Amino acid sequence: MGYSLDFGVVFARWPELLVGAVMTLGLALAGMALAIVIGVLGVAARRSRFRVLRAAVIAFVEVVRNTPFLVQIFFIFFALPLMGLRFNPTITAIIGLGINGGAYAIEIIRGGVDSIRKGQVEAGLALGLHRPQVFRLIVLKPALRAVYPSLTSQFILLTLTTSICSSIAAYELTTVADRIESDTFRSFEVFFTATVMYLVISWLMNVLFAAISRRYFSYPAS
Amino acid sequence: MGPLGPNELLFLLQGLKWTLALSVIGFVGGGVFGLLIALARTAENTPLRRVTAAYISVFQGTPLLMQLFVTYYGVALIGLNVDAWLAVAIAFTLHASAYLGEIWRGAIEATPHGQTEAAKALGLHYVSRMKDVVLPQAFKLSLPATVGFLVQLIKGTSLAAIVGFIELARAGQIVSNQTYKPLIVFGVVGAIYFVICWPLSIYGARLEHRLAAAQ
Hints:
Chain A is mainly alpha-helical. Chain A is built from nine helices and no strands. Helices cover 78% and strands 0% of the residues of chain A. The longest helix of chain A has 33 residues, at 14-46. Chain A starts with 7 loop residues before the first helix and ends in a 6-residue tail after the last helix. The radius of gyration of chain B is 20 Å and the shape is globular. The chains are: A mainly alpha, B mainly alpha.
């Protein structure tokens, strides 16, 4: 006897799936925000006078980039309570995503900052711009443009990575799909639907990132 | 509660064996299919290019975990009574073929067009034009990104743990549950992944540096 697909029982749970998708987006956005903070602080530390600090940042980046996110999230999940920090799984997931994304952000942002030559800052000052103006127009904007493509594709990867947070039962789309699967036993249908939802999410992010790029970074290259 | 003794370490190393096996299968299978994808993606035939572009964007736009789940249950659905590990191997092969296909498409397109024109002018047909002229040059260009993806793939095999396949990460979970020492166990598991991935990352960075210096 053949198996007949039944998406009906899955679609009946659409409100839950929708909330799961929104939670996935929220998890991704919070993780990105934390990743940018870690990225900027990490680059600052990477350029500091203290060798220990520089070495610590390099070690952090290498360790995070050469171990699986699944192992990282388990480690953090068990390590935080030992440090006296008790969070719910969703907050733990955001911390894990931020740390993972942060390591990649450090490398990407460092490349962008390195691309601004010192002479440009001096030229800006010589033209009579104020220091904040020099930072905003001559350092920040070109640096952002230089890192934008790598940073946004890293963010889309981070969004896809959020699905791994289901392993600690953080509240997001894959966890919702797991729950519906254990209720309905329609494994293929549930995960296929969730996959399509992820595809839509990453496609929307692509469109949004491209629109932002056109709006802010479409001036001609120097 | 138990200690983390030689038995536990041996169990982790057995998991490592499957991690390496999955990585090799994914990389070799993904390499073969990825080459076909890259060739189709750069072919003159428009429908072929569109179909492979869609294939790549689906795999790059969805989580690897979902790809594993869908393949795992999908293979059972079409009536194939296969081993769990074969289903997982198929999923990693498909995943790797999309990523490698995209990396190699970029490398083929980065090879100067004059090379193809010269090969055509010399009367070389498609197979030897690709095999003897374009692909060897594209291979060199793609090497850093290919090594980078291999690291990503090795890390990605840890997700097989979530569908219950006992590789390194799942072995770590099991040992952690037995010994109640999650930090030590996941620390050791992470260190094993690091020892495998870090040299590859360094090698990839060195290749990239050398390529940048040559250009």
